[in-house]
């Protein structure tokens, strides 16, 4: 009878053999994600060094709050709870006719 550790080893080998074609792409994608995360963390540290800490001298001169870029923000839910929903139609009043 196989124990838990033997079953785990067999399972890892089977997964590696069956997914050998996709494995390089997965590893490459993980590497890119790690590099992006590392660059963003480094940029945040640089930004913190440039900006004075809030609460220090001159709290009135604190930077305004950050907002998300427009392309990343989600639109408000539509009438049926769907994102965006149907576009709203504006109804313009017709001008009174001249006599």
From TrEMBL:
The primary site where this protein sits is membrane
Region Disordered, residue ranges: 41-99
Q: Where in the cell is it found?
A: Membrane
Q: Which InterPro entries match?
A: TatA/B/E
What Pfam family does this protein match (any one)? TatA_B_E
List, as start-end ranges, the regions of compositional bias called Basic and acidic residues.
Answer: 41-51
Q: Does the keyword Membrane apply?
A: yes
Membrane-topology annotation of the record: Single-pass membrane protein
State the UniProt keywords alphabetically.
Membrane, Protein transport, Translocation, Transmembrane, Transmembrane helix, Transport
The name of this protein is: Twin-arginine translocase TatA/TatE family subunit
């Amino acid at each position: 009878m196989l124990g838990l550790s033997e079953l785990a080893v067999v399972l890892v080998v089977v997964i590696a053999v069956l997914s050998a074609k996709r494995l390089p792409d997965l590893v490459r994608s993980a590497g890119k994600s790690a590099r992006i995360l590392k660059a963003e963390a480094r940029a945040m540290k640089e930004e913190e060094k440039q900006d004075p800490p809030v609460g220090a001298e001159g709290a009135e001169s604190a930077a305004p709050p950050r907002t998300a870029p427009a392309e990343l923000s989600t639109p408000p839910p539509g009438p049926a709870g769907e994102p965006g929903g149907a576009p709203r139609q504006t109804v313009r009043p017709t001008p009174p006719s001249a006599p």
